[in-house]
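Form 12-C: Joint structure prediction
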Amino acid sequence: MVLELRIETTVNGGRRVVEDVWEGESLLHVLRERFGLYGSKNACEQGECGSCSVYLDGALVCACLVLGGQANGRSVVTVEGLDGDRVQQSFVEAGAVQCGFCTPGLVVATHDLLHRVPHPTEEQIREALAGNVCRCTGYAKIIDAVNLAARR
Amino acid sequence: MKVGESVRRPDGQAKVHGSFVYSSDLHVDGMLWGATVRSPHPHARILSIEAAAARAMPGVHAVLTHADVPGEKLYGLEIADQPVLAIDEVNYWGEAVALVAADHPEQARRAAAAVKVEYEVLPPVTRAEDGRVLRHVKIRHGDQSAHAEVVVRGDYEIGMQDQAPLGPESGLAIPDGAGGVDLHIATQWLHVDQQQLASILALPREKVRLTMAGIGGAFGSREDLSMQAHACLLAIRTGSPVKIAYSRPESFVGHVHRHPGTLVYEHGADRDGKLVYVKARILLDGGAYASSSTAVIANATCFSCGPYLMPNATIDGIVVYTNNPPCGAMRGFGSVQNCYAHEAQMDKLAAALGMDPVELRIKNALKTGDRLITGQIIDGPVPVAELLRRVRAFPEPAGDGLMPGGYSNTTHGEGVKRGVGYAAGFKNIGYSEGFDDYSTARVRLFVHEGRPRVEVHSAAAEVGQGVVMVQAQIAGSVLGVNDVVVLNADTGVGSAGSSSASRQTYITGGAVQAAAEAVRARVIELGESELGGELPVGNEAALATLLGDAVIEETREFRPRATHHLDPETGQSDAHMQFAFAAHRAIVDVDTELGLVKVVELTTAQDVGKAINPLAVEGQLEGGAAQGLGLAVMEEIQLKDGVIRNASFTDYLLPTMLDMPPVKMDILELGDPNSPYGLKGVGEPPTISSGPAIVAAIRAATGREIDRVPVRPHDLTL
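Section 2 - Result
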């Protein structure tokens, strides 16, 4: 643990500074363990499941694949700071939430999809959210939730 | 807040906003991080463990081995055979050998890597055929020398599936300063964890208190202990809170898997297609430790013939110890493996008879009053034929969706063939074989801010299925109150049993109903004169006035009807409490040149008895089918000489939104005369017959005799 970093970043609109970060810590670890923002989830930590989806300077990324140091001087938006009420309420109403571990990532990814494509077709939804694994729902209710949010 | 409504999840808001606290989110100031030293060999003798170097590393507070386990050094759900930490040998790849606690998780990982364990490597037993028998269940039903005019045989192989809950094993143990410990944990059964931990830690049960932390899915993977004892040992030793959170690769060795198996079947029928006999040998690989293998093999054997009337049966179900990773509970619990075999056999038999495969199934479908191969007379609605007719009646979709290979554009239709397949399955609900199945619920009624409020407290694990809202709906229905709060589960109330065997809505639902009815009786007593014995249902103001400052609280245990042990020689017994049935139709497109499968649509019909929460029931039918699809065409833990080769989500493939088709469904509510509200367990049947229907459809598309799942591209091309 020789090299330790200082990270100064904007998270959900607020300035955050953290010292003594081990260089190997992912953005996901920094968000969760340094900033106490546990909404981004740690399901695979390999970029396969999308549970840690956040915005980094407006781009949808897996926080587990970004080093904490890379967020220095940049802006991060997590599920906790998302302007995503219509997506979030649609997930609850459509029954798209079971255990919910995939939900924050799906909420952020859906928010991103609807920003790019306000009225996606089912195929567009399936392609856009194929990087978000859900083990509980079989996805049908998630597609319902996206359609419900798109109509709002 | 009533039974039968699609009430929204009380935890939904926290889950969509990222504020729901899962076990891996737990943290307190000054907590340490635990890490686990694991065996790099599937079988080896431990010659020495050298921990001094690890202990001297920066930030390290403790390094523990089996010598530091104060109580019982072995644990297990059915048989205590698994070491808390390996003692003198390791029996599977990834077995826990030592523990480290450090300030930072990376310090803990590095210190774990610095613990020097000297091994003498031993040859591993990795083929089930070479394994030591753990349990052999025999069914000898009817004429043991029955003959038939038409006979079909098959050998089937099932790969090892992982539950892959998205939330990795994790928890936080906090020492209480008085020798005891509080464990915040994601588990399927708090009280069985508590019982095992008290024994391991050599503490009275009341000094090991468990509180449920948020659970990121379970599907059977959280029935056994994983890091529970390890975190408690480190916390008690260091005097500090200790968190352990597995990574995904560690999770693959941190919990049991679905048993892989080989199944050899012979079916005999008469020329009209009436089943005459089955002879079958089911061999499941239990891996290094028993876990719930003894119960899984009982299920695999008892339900080996599927939901069909079978007058004569000779079944041997055997589960063995090997040096492969331990196997245990996963959704479907033994009835998944055998369904692949009996449904393939039904299709083979239909082909041999020149019959329609659905007609053959309908002709032999179990009915109310029929005798199972275990001798039990099956009561209540048994709509097997009806379920098959219903899935067949759905219109078939047009072929305008994505091709196999999807957006990779590997085909524009050349070489693509469509197939349709059917399957039916069944299993037991609740515990079997005489196990004392019960749950406990406490219901409290009082006035809160001028309105009546009901609090429900049980230890039922909310694994995502929605048992929190089911409890609220039942208590709300009985008491006619809308403000129902379900308290977090903990060991401060009696056992609820596990969230497994599709039992929790039935058993804990039954306990909540009983406790709420007891509260209702006391309310009626209270208001006898004013209300004429009637609870003011729907009139919350009147109820609030009646209650005043009173707090009415009742606790009840609920038990379903008893079950009995299987006869060891014949397997005859009333061993099961309730049975649930489902049928599936699958439509697939197969690229026969590349061996790629696109499941176009799944159709299912299931009798749920009574849908307590229809939206949640649909979610179970869809999600369960997705796990069935996974085993059919993509999910397999790949083992080589006892070593897992794909312990990550990069290499262990899970169905995504592009793999999982729409599920059309017909939900029947036929009402079981024995259960609360007539409900049946819902969670597992969708995972049983979905996969076999997909494989049947692939066979129909390709004409190939597929005898192994998951079906791989080379099974369809080479």
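Section 3 - Comments
DSSP finds 17 helices and 28 strands in chain B. The CA atoms of residues 391 and 604 of chain B lie 6 Å apart.
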